[in-house]
User: Fold this.
Amino acid sequence: MAMGPDVVRIAAVSDIHYAKDSHGALQPLFAQITESADVLILAGDLTDYGLAEEAKVLARDLTTTVKIPVVAVLGNHDYESGQVAELVKILADAGVRILDGDTFETRGVGFAGVRGFCGGFGRGALGAWGEPIIKQFVHEAVNEALKLESALARLRTDHRIAILHYAPIRDTVEGESPEIFPFLGSSRLEEPLSRFDVTAIFHGHAHKGKPEGATSKGIPVYNVAYQVLKACYPDRPAFRLFELRTTVSHTDGVTPIADRRHWGRRSTDRGSAAQQPQEENPSPS
Ligand SMILES: [Fe+2]
Ligand SMILES: [Fe+2]
Assistant:
């Protein structure tokens, strides 16, 4: 595809939940991504149980197929087995940039990423009051928000892109059971995003959420959970694709380009996930 040097194409997906038996499961999708985009965002829940063995399967599929930079955050599932350090090393050795309050820059676009945390939204957000364990819970979200703020502040690029696993706004978790909204994200994550000139925000975690929303300041928020994309855009491969112009005003924002492309559905892309993701409701995604 002929593209000027001032255009960066960003592909995004999350919650691919790679399992021990996922060998090759998303290679058709990864191949389409690598043909279409300049950088790939993976917004957490890369693995199903946070096992090093699962990360090895994913690492092998990525290194075989994906020839563009991959920038990622971890999700709650990646923490499940207490093997985070090993998991990060396996994926880093495969060239994946795992952001945990870190930044990554490519071709004039800066990425700031954190896992984020939960606690709820708006007036329903849990406050740091009462028992120490409640304060500790709330402080986790506050700490993630501070890490995000610090990462955003370090970026000097025209565009700042934020990557989280948990949702920073309520809009994009709509569709899930309201009872579990507090476990799907936190408004505390929205605060730093509003203080910086962020072009777009990507997250996952809410498998039954809504694909698009916006912060109170109008910053576009995309829930790119694989399961959401499959449900909302059944005629397209399960990733979002955006283009960013880096030599014009950042106020141009990101442009979803999948909508005006013809996506021929490949037989290999039919209904697949790395495995059929175990939808975790009512437990968090
Ligand atoms: Fe999750
Ligand atoms: Fe998930």
